[in-house]
Specification:
With 219 residues, the protein is α/β, with parallel strands linked by helices. The protein has 9 helices and 5 strands, in the order E-H-E-H-E-H-E-H-E-H-H-H-H-H. It is 46% helix and 15% strand. The termini are far apart.
Length: 219
């Protein structure tokens, strides 16, 4: 069963989405010998090729990060191009949405859009896998990503066997839907340097730490 995957992360080949896709494919190809092609939507100069690949594929997965409760602009532009091209089926389309938020509730709203979009175009909707707490996995030791990667390999192997996402695993990956009262209490009491360590390290890396409180659009 040939499979076409679209990586919708603006970080392209340096993205967390790419890492998850790699694990999914490892599981998929442990069962299926079918070819898997990957297209990076961030390479906007190849947008015509992306659309052509979608047109010619019967099984498609679109993987992207949540950007402040919404999809990245390159994903929205791609979906609009698909709509405008009026591409016909038969076609099966599924989605994987990952984010830095631990709670899956943040991604539940874009999930509704993805389902409605797919059904309106007459495609078979395979569902949306939501996984929070993904930001930072590139700097985590293997012991911290072991379970996550195992889950995505299992997701891929099940998909190769059935052409769908494993329901129990979809539920598991989406936990927690909301943070518990104890977790929210801890986040409020945790020192800011601890909560902001990852973001501050990135600001310093890009020489923007001194500008973190600037408000360029306030006027």
């Amino acid at each position: 069963m040939p499979l076409t995957i679209f990586n919708g992360s603006p970080r392209s080949k340096k993205s967390n989405s790419k890492l998850l896709i790699e694990q999914f494919i490892a599981g998929y190809q442990s069962i299926q010998d079918g070819s898997v092609s990957i297209h990076y939507l961030a390479l906007t100069a190849e947008s015509d090729q992306h659309l052509k690949a979608f047109t010619e594929s019967e099984n498609c997965l679109i993987v992207f990060p949540l950007y402040t409760d919404a999809m990245p602009a390159i994903v929205k532009a791609f979906l609009e191009a698909v709509f405008e091209a009026n591409i016909k089926g038969p076609k099966k389309v599924g989605f994987i949405v990952q984010s830095g938020f631990r709670e899956s509730i943040h991604s539940s709203f874009v999930e509704r859009y993805l389902k409605k979009f797919t059904v309106r175009l007459g495609y078979e909707y395979l569902g949306t896998v939501i996984k929070g707490g993904v930001e930072g996995i590139q700097i985590m030791p293997p012991s911290m990503t072991k379970k996550l990667f195992e889950n995505f390999r299992e997701l891929g192997s099940y998909f190769a066997q059935t052409g769908s996402f494993k329901p129990e695993l979809v539920v598991q990956l989406a936990q927690p839907y909301k943070l518990s009262l104890a977790s929210r209490w801890f986040m409020q009491l945790a020192p800011s340097f601890l909560k902001n360590f990852y973001w501050n390290s990135n600001l310093k890396k890009h020489k923007a730490y001194s500008k973190r409180f600037e408000k360029p659009f306030i006027n």
